Amino acid sequence: MRLLDIGMNHKTAPVEIREKLASDDMLDYLVRLDSVKEAISLKTCNRVEAIVVTDNEDRARRSILSYICRIGNLSQENILNFVYIFKDLDAVRHIFRVASSLDSMVIGEPQILGQVKGAYAEAVKKKSTGVILNTLMHRAFHVAKKIRTETGICEAAVSVSYAAVELAKKIFGSLADKRVLLIGAGEMSELTARHLMSNGAKEVIVANRTFERAMELASKFNSYPISFDEIPAYLLEVDIVITSTAAPDYIITTDMLKGISRKRRNKALFFIDIAVPRDVDPEVNKLDSVYVYDIDDLKGIVQMNMEQRRKEAMKAERIIEEEVLKFKRWLETLDVVPTIILLKNKAYSVLERELKRSESKLRDLNPKQREAVFVLCKSIVEKLINDPILFLKSKAGRPTVDTYLDLTKKLFNLDQQQGERIYEDSRHKFNNR
Hints:
The protein contains 18 helices and 10 strands. By secondary structure, the chain is of the alpha/beta class. The chain folds into 3 domains: 2-150, Glutamyl-tRNA reductase, N-terminal domain (Beta Polymerase, domain 2, 2-Layer Sandwich); 160-301, NAD(P)-binding Rossmann-like Domain (Rossmann fold); 335-431, no CATH class.
């Protein structure tokens, strides 16, 4: 069995190709392939990937690439310019990096883990996963959680709107009792409003030249709109003003703020100006108890944070390498699992046979006594086969493993045709006689 990850992302393919593949049901196609034994289809705005376990690598690869060519309207000659192909441990490493957001457009972004979990849930629903992908995906979720816990990869703001809110939190410590005036109702303002509300701002007031647009944005966040003419009055009441308009001139001037410090009783007022050109006259910063941060200040924060995330990403890569080695060791044990199952089946078949032969002597036992006899026998069986099982597992992945597997089969006379009988079957038969 081989593990394959074939896909494309924002680095390798333009959005017009990715969106064609994202709109098609790739998983249904994958499960129909004879060469594919397990499958997951991961689709986000930045990537499309087919993750499969196959017993015929060449055939599976050709089939998946053919599908991408057909749906993406690409030629066979050009397909490798847009896709990447990872095999076995390289595929494991890639999946761990994707789930941990190390392969994202913005390192450390939180959405991708939820998207990976969603893709896995869909595959489980369609019963397209098995022991290998089930284990792989749960390990990927574990790795992502470990990286978020043990590194600071997600802590530093890397967008201007988010950095504005992080700056406000650093200034005040908490936004829980703060009132915020948001001037402008464009996309940047909406992103900022979302961050403010998620960080517990007490109230967000929205001002915009077009009052209808202010109403529209305010309704999304259970806040309320005001007109531009009302801005001076609200400057007396709020703690933070975040401006993001397309105005050609300053909308906050020193004249507007004259005497404001006295009326506010010297309570600090912070302006975070993320507009280009600027909305707040730089001279405002000279007024008592008034502080102004512009987009260059925020870009400096973002740049420092990006550098911090890159340093944290190095720690994350080390964690991933450790987890890839652990998964490699698990994969190697799969070679010995069939023989271990045969050994367990042989042991429990002996247990069942001997219990049946002793039936006449045990007939008068009550249910509790019968259960005690079964538990005793089962314990003896498991202790006897435990050492051979541990020995086989210790040889997994080594060149001599086949020799030990053959020897175990001969020593215990293991029948390759035995079913996967487990001890509960024996318990049921014995306790119900």
